Amino acid sequence: MAVIGVVGAGVMGIGVAQNVATGGHDVVLVDTSDEVLADARTAIYRNCRLSRMMGGPTLDPDEVLARITTAVGLEALAKAELVIENVTENWEIKREVHAELDRILPADTVVVANTSAIPITRIAAVGGHPERVVGVHFMNPVPAKPVVELIPGFHTTPETLQRTRDLLTSMGKRWVDVKDASGFVSNRVLMLTINEAAYLVHEGVATAESVDDVFRGCFGHPMGPLETADLIGVDTILYSVEVLYEHYADSKYRPCPLLKQMTDAGLHGRKSGRGFYTYNS
């Protein structure tokens, strides 16, 4: 099986690395520090052990981790046949990482940008091989979500798309083909909903609990929009809304000040232990 590189050991990167490994691939997971990578291995072990309990398949944590090598720095990805980038939804950070990947990787390595809002053509333009860059919008938690958005950039070749589809198939994913537009389909709708839900709390119209109760009770949604915000990450929500606001120059995407305040205060949701709700570690 091919060696797959995974950039970023945050919530999304951990889920992608686990899912790729359970698909039978060897994985090289990279981040910026040994401490972050040690925490990632601990999280993957825990997630594999709880997989059955959470409705997933029975997984052997040691077997999954045996397929995952961790390393500090992007240089460790030089032999990967396909790399999946999962860094935060911040354009400057994405741009820097993709410029470095373009310098390190062989010309035939496929580069998958896991992004929820940034246009793929913009990311591909950073390097000298835009034909090998493609977008996949994975959902969180990655191993438990069977569907992704697959987004070709302007220059993405059919070969790049097919190699990406082959990987997704090995991961047990179904994909929905989506054209390259900021936010794609899911986040053009979801981010507006979460942003407006945050405005309702910010303006004192309703509590977070009340907003989510309406969506669960009235519409039958399994989670309310603000519970979803905590799961995704309040900071990630803010960055995504900011990208939409910048890209479309449309006031309907104006970020709620409460999202900015919570991000500045470190209230990032489940991953920080507190967002619209408080979580036990």
Automatic annotation (TrEMBL):
Ranges of residues in domain 3-hydroxyacyl-CoA dehydrogenase NAD binding: 4-180
Site (Important for catalytic activity): 137
EC number(s) from the headed UniProt entry: 1.1.1.157
Pathway field: Lipid metabolism; butanoate metabolism
Record GO biological process: fatty acid metabolic process
Highest taxon of the lineage: Bacteria
Binding site for NAD(+): 8-13, 31, 89, 94, 116, 140, 271
A Pfam family it matches: 3HCDH
GO molecular function: 3-hydroxybutyryl-CoA dehydrogenase activity; NAD+ binding
Every 3-hydroxyacyl-CoA dehydrogenase C-terminal domain range: 183-279
Keywords carried by this UniProt record: NAD, Oxidoreductase
Family named by the database record: Belongs to the 3-hydroxyacyl-CoA dehydrogenase family.
Protein's recorded name: 3-hydroxybutyryl-CoA dehydrogenase
